[in-house]
Structure formats: C-alpha cells, structure tokens
Specification:
alpha+beta, three-stranded antiparallel beta sheet, 2 helices, 3 strands, binds zinc ion
Length: about 70
C-alpha cells in the first residue's frame, strides 16, 4: 500500500475495460499506457485515493463473475 492509498489509473478513450488496472506511481502508469496504446488511442492518467470508483467497479466485476459461475 502506498501512502494515503494514493494510486493511479489509466483512463482509456477506446477500451474502458482496462481502466481498473492500478499503479502505485504515475510513472509506472505512464510507461504501461505508452506500451498498450494503439495508434490514435488517447489516455489520461488519473490519481485516485482510497475511495476509488475504478477499484470498486473492478471488485464488483470480480465478485459478480465468481458468484455467477456455473455450479456442478
Ligand atoms: Zn483505484
């Protein structure tokens, strides 16, 4: 955990499915964004604190998927 729960997300113009990825530093997120960016795709790096909507969204996604997994 970084101080104050601060972390970063890349906000993509074209693929919001990746927005949940979190990084501890803005440099880390920038480097990853540069690798993943397609030509013409734009992104912004956002700084978030403890109550982060992106992380909450992802947690909901994960728990939702697990609960709906077909049972035997
Ligand atoms: Zn987050």
């Amino acid at each position: 955990m970084s101080k104050n729960g601060l972390h970063y997300h890349i906000k993509w113009s074209g693929k919001p499915a990746r927005d949940w990825e979190r990084f501890d530093t803005s440099a880390e997120s920038e480097a990853s964004a540069r690798q993943l960016a397609r030509p013409g795709e734009t992104y912004t790096v956002e700084e978030h604190g403890e109550s982060c909507p992106q992380c909450m969204k992802f947690m909901k996604m994960v728990s939702g998927r697990d609960n709906n997994e077909a049972s035997t």
